């Protein structure tokens, strides 16, 4: 998944023509239920996620290939140990707050991923049978948001990308991106 997200991050950064020295950010919501000590039970109903930000210079992201960006994502995700998670939630209990992007992260320099193909959304049956697809509503759309769902076919991923039209059009003309997604 980190390679897939890095592919998108690199392509969007290229299409935005970001200065190589500018910092670009990727906001990830890391599922921590299995990392907690003791871990939450299998039947836990609710979210247990921590927002984390991967930051790189645009030139480093673009010149380093998929491996460089995916490795940086992996490093940030791997930092979420049981102790760090415990400290995060204890701090939140003392001072509850809503997630706000740090200053300098807003604007054109970030992407955010929500949801995950690990959640069995397609397994929901509300009495009408198995879903054919999952879509997000307009209230969940946010510029620079990438939402991932497990697809209808076993092992597939559905991706919802909310970007301005001009970036989507540029993605369609990006040879490196299209070579990967059209094969």
From TrEMBL:
<keyword id="KW-0732">Signal</keyword>
<dbReference type="InterPro" id="IPR023213">
    <property type="entry name" value="CAT-like_dom_sf"/>
</dbReference>
<keyword id="KW-0808">Transferase</keyword>
<dbReference type="GO" id="GO:0016740">
    <property type="term" value="F:transferase activity"/>
</dbReference>
<feature type="signal peptide">
    <location>
        <begin position="1"/>
        <end position="15"/>
    </location>
</feature>
<dbReference type="Pfam" id="PF02458">
    <property type="entry name" value="Transferase"/>
</dbReference>
<dbReference type="InterPro" id="IPR051283">
    <property type="entry name" value="Sec_Metabolite_Acyltrans"/>
</dbReference>
<protein>
    <submittedName>
        <fullName>Uncharacterized protein</fullName>
    </submittedName>
</protein>
